[in-house]
């Protein structure tokens, strides 16, 4: 067989990934149908907020002034702010929610494929194997989770391969690359906090291996400390935001899953057709276990570590653990919400392990390529079938979107659907609203969301009151205007945190003059006639410096990488 030219060989992986991404979005492009899953409205409000701030040059890092019913609540500052603004840019480019969905899906596919390909190449896996396994990764539900349900862990899954570069350096070179470790860890913290904990779980055994195998432990620890220091600078905005909000407020905990056992992976249980898809994933999982047992002594240290870590995450994601007992008896375990989240790192580690086995066992290159090609083609077919199944719900008047805790402000279903194809991005979010209460401040003794009734209270205190008040986003803050028939205390559909500043009818109110509902809605004494309230947020000065400093540190690190690459090429 004639070899490919060097230039074609260089660009072929990128071209194949682009083709793969386009193929996976084709069903939606052709059918012109939307996918509005369980997390779509929540995240679309986040991205709309970021987009409108960028479009209007009206940047408010903490409070929301466009999304989430223009309520002044804090969301993006404590939940992946960098990726939220990145999606805001994609939304402005797309101009409609439908276009944005296509563009964001392609972005996730390209990130996931590129990251997986580069990670496998870093593991010294053959180029042809790497590209086929990277294409296979696009079809797994870890990535499809964003496409079908708009779950943000899909973005985390797309970036996870990039974040595992350091484990190869740990094991193969027995050293720490300061810039690599700091950036890779910071990248996930900036995206998805829970997945960043999984990343650290993966790092620890690999670093431990390097520590015990090297005779330069002091130097290794010194580099680790420097990497941690740089990591803290690269994530200063995250820590500043979390400390700012949580130290000065009592914050409502996110949704608590009462059925953790029911959301664990099993061959005959929850989401069989989703998380275990494509079916080749089950085959790879079984193959890995067989090969690990049979060839333990013949494989590399990296393969042993990666394979064992994969099995640990598989067990953590499954019903092999007593999740019913753990959720009741172990404090803090409910922060995981869904055990199937452990399945995302399992998939990535499994693919690395399979690629290493193909290389280390010396199997026929031709046979492996044929088998992988068949698997990839079949997996693309299954992914597109599942996507078409999900898209078919769009034509159903009652199931065209996930509707739990969702309110519709238009009786015409077709109008609602059309709004997501409109260039008026606010329209869809006005017609469809969700009473998600995450990160609201609590003015009560409990932080248990089951006792606070956050969904119910947000529904009645914010969403149902929107029509009474006029809200305007300005550079000075969120302006709320209304008319009153008489002077009395009134509850406004805007949120007040400890550092929220309230100005009513030109007078700055003291904290003692502002009351709050259980979930933080502001209560003030209105006057008869026209009333104007200005809501702004003023964090500690150190917090502002941390937020400003972070992007500059990223730019400096990016510049260093470019200079090193230029010198290396030269």
Automatic annotation (TrEMBL):
Phylogenetic classification of the source organism: Bacteria, Bacillati, Bacillota, Bacilli, Lactobacillales
Transmembrane parts of this sequence: 12-30, 74-93, 100-120, 126-145, 191-212, 224-242, 275-293, 305-323, 343-361, 368-385, 542-563
Signal peptide (residue range): none
Keyword line: Membrane, Transmembrane, Transmembrane helix
Organism annotation: Ligilactobacillus apodemi DSM 16634 = JCM 16172
The keyword Transmembrane helix belongs to this UniProt entry's keyword annotation: yes
Protein name stated in the entry: Cell division protein
Record has Lipid metabolism as a keyword: no
Superkingdom classification of source: Bacteria
């Amino acid at each position: 067989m004639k070899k490919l030219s060097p230039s074609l060989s260089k660009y072929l992986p990128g071209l194949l990934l682009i083709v793969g991404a386009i193929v996976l979005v084709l069903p939606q492009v052709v059918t012109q149908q939307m996918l509005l899953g369980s997390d779509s409205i929540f995240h679309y409000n986040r991205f709309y907020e970021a987009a409108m701030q960028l479009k209007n040059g009206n940047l408010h890092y903490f409070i929301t002034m466009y999304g989430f019913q223009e309520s002044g609540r804090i969301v993006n500052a404590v939940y992946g702010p960098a990726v939220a603004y990145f999606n805001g840019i994609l939304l402005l480019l797309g101009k409609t929610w439908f276009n944005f969905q296509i563009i964001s899906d392609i972005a996730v596919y390209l990130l996931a494929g590129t990251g997986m390909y580069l990670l496998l190449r870093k593991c010294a896996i053959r180029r042809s194997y790497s590209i086929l396994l990277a294409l296979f990764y696009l079809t797994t539900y870890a990535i499809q989770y964003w496409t079908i349900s708009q779950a943000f862990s899909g973005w985390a899954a797309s970036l996870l391969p990039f974040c595992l570069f350091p484990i190869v350096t740990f094991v193969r070179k027995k050293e720490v690359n300061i810039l690599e470790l700091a950036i890779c860890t910071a990248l996930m913290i900036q995206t998805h906090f829970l997945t960043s904990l999984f990343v650290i779980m993966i790092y620890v055994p690999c670093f431990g291996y390097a520590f015990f195998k090297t005779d330069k432990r002091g130097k290794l620890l010194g580099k680790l400390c420097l990497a941690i220091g740089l990591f803290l600078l690269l994530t200063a905005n995250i820590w500043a935001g979390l400390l700012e909000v949580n130290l000065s407020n009592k914050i409502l905990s996110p949704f608590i899953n009462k059925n953790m056992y029911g959301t664990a992976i099993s061959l005959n249980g929850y989401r069989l057709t989703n998380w275990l898809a494509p079916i080749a994933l089950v085959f790879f999982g079984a193959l890995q276990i067989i090969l690990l047992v049979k060839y333990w002594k013949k494989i590399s240290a990296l393969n042993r570590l990666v394979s064992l870590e994969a099995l640990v995450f598989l067990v953590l994601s499954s019903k092999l653990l007593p999740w019913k007992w753990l959720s009741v008896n172990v404090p803090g375990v409910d922060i995981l919400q869904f055990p199937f989240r452990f399945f995302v790192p399992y998939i990535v580690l499994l693919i690395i392990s399979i690629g290493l086995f193909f290389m280390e066992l010396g199997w026929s290159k031709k046979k492996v390529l044929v088998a992988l090609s068949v698997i990839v083609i079949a997996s693309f077919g299954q992914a597109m079938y599942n996507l078409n199944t999900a898209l078919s719900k769009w034509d159903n008047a009652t199931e065209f979107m996930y509707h739990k805790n969702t309110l519709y402000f238009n009786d015409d279903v077709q109008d609602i659907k059309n709004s997501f194809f409109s260039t008026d991005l606010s329209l869809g979010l006005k017609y469809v609203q969700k009473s998600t209460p995450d990160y609201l401040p609590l003015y009560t003794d409990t932080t248990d969301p089951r006792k606070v009734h956050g969904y119910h209270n947000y529904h009645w205190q914010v969403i149902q009151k929107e029509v009474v008040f006029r809200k305007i986003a300005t550079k000075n803050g969120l302006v709320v205007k209304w008319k009153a028939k008489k002077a009395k205390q009134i509850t406004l559909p805007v949120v007040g945190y400890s550092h929220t500043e309230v100005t009513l009818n030109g007078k700055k109110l003291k904290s003692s003059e502002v009351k709050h509902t259980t979930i933080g809605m502001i209560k003030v004494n209105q006057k008869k006639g026209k009333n104007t309230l200005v809501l702004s947020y003023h964090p500690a000065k150190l917090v502002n410096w941390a937020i400003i400093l972070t992007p500059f540190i990223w730019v400096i690190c990016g510049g260093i990488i470019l200079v090193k690459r230029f010198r290396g090429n030269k």
